């Protein structure tokens, strides 16, 4: 069975030095959601890697595996 995972990517740019400022309703960052479909073999490999590093949250492992790809794609598309 093919599983569906959603990875949420938020790109925030702040002007100035205050990185903890509140984001107003109008200036909230855009949220991009990417949907990935993973085959059972892929999920199995991810679980092996997670067991090696002591991480048992499968969704988090998928997110970690796809983070770099998604961020590059989001930056490329603007």
From TrEMBL:
<protein>
    <recommendedName>
        <fullName>Ribbon-helix-helix protein CopG domain-containing protein</fullName>
    </recommendedName>
</protein>
<dbReference type="GO" id="GO:0006355">
    <property type="term" value="P:regulation of DNA-templated transcription"/>
</dbReference>
<dbReference type="Pfam" id="PF01402">
    <property type="entry name" value="RHH_1"/>
</dbReference>
<dbReference type="InterPro" id="IPR010985">
    <property type="entry name" value="Ribbon_hlx_hlx"/>
</dbReference>
<dbReference type="InterPro" id="IPR013321">
    <property type="entry name" value="Arc_rbn_hlx_hlx"/>
</dbReference>
<feature type="domain" description="Ribbon-helix-helix protein CopG">
    <location>
        <begin position="33"/>
        <end position="72"/>
    </location>
</feature>
<dbReference type="InterPro" id="IPR002145">
    <property type="entry name" value="CopG"/>
</dbReference>
